[in-house]
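User: For my dataset I need records formatted as: sequence, then structure tokens, nothing else. Please produce one.
Assistant:
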Amino acid sequence: MAFSRALSALVLALPLLSVSALRTKRALCPDGVNSAVNQACCALFPVVADLTENLFDNECGDAAHGALRLVFHDAIGISPTLGGGGADGSIFTFSTTELTFHANIGIDDVLDQVGPFITKYADVLSPGDFIQLAGAVSLTQCPGAPRIPFVMGRPQPIAASPPGLVPEPFDNITSILQRFGEVGFSPAEVVAVVGGSHSVAGADDIVPNQQGVPFDQTPSLFDTQIFVDVLLRGTNFTDGQGAQQGESETAVAGTVRLQSDGLLARDPRTACTWQSFVNQQSQLSTAFGQGVTKLSLLGQTASKLVDCSEVIPKAIAFTGGAATLPPGQTLQDIQASCPTAAFPKLATQPGPATTVSPIPQATDS
């Protein structure tokens, strides 16, 4: 569709904009410390520093995970038929409406953390711009995650997103792919965005009375472990409505698997892409970065946005190792679903098995 082609062309053009910027004369910012190609970007350096120090605490923790989640829940709220502003910040401005949507369960906690910063810098950034900036900076807190472009100039949101546009963990695979497809995402891009984001994420409120339950064994690393853990037999499984199945057969104690992840890993339309990311760190980082950039532009007019990618900190190099099997597990415990490629060989972690700790919450003392 034309909408999809336009998005793809824009995403491809953004890296070129950054390269061109590097070849342009830089000017010293009013703070006397930073410099920028575009003076409009100078105002963002203190915002980024504040986010890094005082929201994210210089770590890939609960606040960083939440900021990334907010990017998705705000941006996906657009439809060619139902309307919505996409990446416009409506989830903040019209929170009294959008937080009533079942798909946005737990977003109130994220806005409790991020909201005061959006208000603090309201004279510098629109809500849509701030959410995307915070998401880009959050990724630079997580080793292995990509450094993505950031563009500024999104207008103020004018209305709440229509309900039913955010895919939910218990949706069937056809519904999930159709929803993403409406806004120009291929099945392969869905796997990259969903799998990559869940590599540094945890469940809040989905599992009853539990917060920060990781989706894989390494929630503070952007890595490919999730593409292994989700395929293990007996992994803790939740339908997204509070009910858990297979509680006594948890393959990785302390983690939870969403139904949507399990389906993406096993459905014929997406299984081979899911498997292809196992121990392909660079491939995942690139595909995920392109997908999140695409999300950040939904509903926006590219020609009216200013490229301020230069304010985003450098990515942290990947510090982890290869994806592995939990103690006592073998490849026989993997439910491989790709018929055209053998599952990669994996080492098994030495025993005994341990329980993955919950992600510390930002409000913890």
